[in-house]
Amino acid sequence: MLASAAPAATVSSSSYGVSANLNVVGALNASLGPVSAASGSAPGSYDVSNSLLTLNQSLALIATPLVSAGEQLSGGLITATAMSDYPATPRGSASATVADLSAGLFLDTVLLPPALIAGIDSKTVQSSAWVDASAGLSVGGSTVLEQLALGGSVLGTLGIGGGLFASPAANTVLVDLLGLRIVLNEQMVWGDGVSNLGIATNAIHASFDNFLLGTQLLNGDIIIAHSQAEITGYSASAAVPEPASWAMLIAGFGLVGFAMRARPRSRIVTA
Length: 271
Description:
Largest sheet: 8 strands, antiparallel
Number of helices: 2
Distance between the termini: 53 Å
Number of strands: 17
Strand content: over 45%
Helix content: under 10%
């Protein structure tokens, strides 16, 4: 009999809907989430999900008598899933979906009406990531954006048609301006591709690098719909016979040889 050693591997996956970590230089830090997170690890199959019906959060970033500024995030149903049936199949996956997303930076100055500096809206934001070891290690990810729209004094003037990015290519840079960088379908892959491999997908990643907000500098990140999957400790060992099987094979070859030697030889008789 042939003994095939199953790969001594670990499959893991995770996802979340929204995360924000912002810092106003010399002032304060503000963070949110991860919101609606799900994760799992195998061997031992798992199918984990988490959801939040609505999200309506505000992060105060500047608060002075003359100027106030903040970040607002809202959404409808937010769902996150992570699953794997390993060791039945060596695969793990995750997905995250945010419905009715609205995210923006607002500035309120004395004697002036409140202003939207930069805003992103989308009917649906979804990311996915998977890892598979059925035929060597492989990973993949994707992003779906429905009715993406940009607004505000910084983004609204760019005239970018959000409908062009319903299924953006990996690492599509939507905006890189004035210290604000927005990447769609951001994908990061790690591992040696032999024993371990992983991928993370961010449907929308907005990063701030000394972005001028009022009279202050803003740094940090906002991530919408994050999914990741990873496999570690994988070994593609081929099936090899057990010692008892080797003995049976050798004995079998010996019997075949003995039978061939014992078989009567035919003779050709000529007249």
